[in-house]
Hints:
Number of strands of chain A: 5
Helix content of chain A: 10-25%
Distance between the termini of chain B: 30 Å
Order of helices and strands of chain B: HEHHEHHEHEHEHEHEHHEHEHEEHHH
Helix content of chain B: 25-40%
CATH superfamily of the domain at 65-171 and 258-296 in chain B: HypD, alpha/beta domain 2
CATH topology of the domain at 65-171 and 258-296 in chain B: Rossmann fold
Number of helices of chain B: 16
Shape of chain A: elongated
Low-confidence stretches of chain A: 72-76
Mean pLDDT of chain B: 95
Largest sheet of chain B: 5 strands, parallel
Structural class of chain B: alpha/beta
Strand order of the largest sheet of chain B: 2-1-7-8-9
Distance between the termini of chain A: 31 Å
Bound molecules: iron/sulfur cluster
Shape of chain B: globular
Oligomer: heterodimer
Strand content of chain B: 15-25%
Mean pLDDT of chain A: 88
Number of strands of chain B: 11
Largest interface: A-B, 37 and 60 residues
Low-confidence stretches of chain B: none
Amino acid sequence: xxxxxxxxxxxxxxxxxxxxxxxxxxxxxxxxxxxxxxxxxxxxxxxxxxxxxxxxxxxxxxxxxxxxxxxxxxxx
Amino acid sequence: xxxxxxxxxxxxxxxxxxxxxxxxxxxxxxxxxxxxxxxxxxxxxxxxxxxxxxxxxxxxxxxxxxxxxxxxxxxxxxxxxxxxxxxxxxxxxxxxxxxxxxxxxxxxxxxxxxxxxxxxxxxxxxxxxxxxxxxxxxxxxxxxxxxxxxxxxxxxxxxxxxxxxxxxxxxxxxxxxxxxxxxxxxxxxxxxxxxxxxxxxxxxxxxxxxxxxxxxxxxxxxxxxxxxxxxxxxxxxxxxxxxxxxxxxxxxxxxxxxxxxxxxxxxxxxxxxxxxxxxxxxxxxxxxxxxxxxxxxxxxxxxxxxxxxxxxxxxxxxxxxxxxxxxxxxxxxxxxxxxxxxxxxxxxxxxxxxxxxxxxxx
Lengths: 76, 362
Ligand code: SF4
């Protein structure tokens, strides 16, 4: 129930948006976020975006894993 | 980039596992994962088995369906039997046994019960049936509560007079205070819920480190997230630190989501709440504010049966981390996902369900 996954915002219409993940599209309430733009990755839970995904932080975390595993190239 | 699969690499997982073992230097630690989403992810990816020698993992009170007491389900059942009422609920609640019935059984008997994905869908149900009252079953923690609040605000703006909400919404910090204060289970560390913290921020959890000296890490939900969180906890333990660190920085900021909290605070105020297995915990629930009390489903006059526990079910003890699912005599015998005796076996995120489903994994 607490599941919430990052989905890309592809359309915005006032307090409602459309997010997409792997071809699946869903309506999302944007009431809980202060400033969002099309192209943002949103953490979507129970039909509402509860946070915006910080891509710079995500990439930092991934880089740490790569360094640990001794890989130079990002995985495909 | 989808920010999902990238956090599931096997090579990276091996590397982090090595780091955890290295940091612990042969020591074995007991860690509680609070959130049901974490329980599910840990078991699904077989991490308890991989970590067996260094980490003893316990599930905590963070599965919303599991901690909802029978009395709430009994009221939902009574509402489903009440003429003129439509019960709208997250699908997870459908099969949870109340004292003598389930919502699924009530639907088979003709009750109008509609599982939905979002509280917003409940508004559509109310709109489509103006002659009846749509009651939304509001369960969940700080992640879900703002979504319910947003739906209530929309209901008021739309002038939906036939929309009601039955609240069993709960807040996590007070439950963790009760758990830590009871001292029933000794913990070397806590994996804190990532999406709760995305809303609340880290500050409400600081007392765990400061007062109780328990190392804490706010974690994401992918296997590499959880492994990194365990590594961060292992380092705190080996260095003798107790802090609240955030592994899941891509979604959970130290300050949380102030806008979501504002929406929540507009509609709800804190109140005492009943938890399965933990009793009444002061300040751990969310009730509608006075100005919103017109939406309270408690005002609908229904007769609710007397609450009864399921004989033999140890869900309450499982929720506190006091016993493991395997220690319940009904586990995997009479109690299975297809014939659950208790809530912890029903919910995807329940400890009993996770242990059952992935028991041959580890
Ligand atoms: S195995 Fe079933 S009966 Fe036992 S505690 Fe879990 S849910 Fe309850």
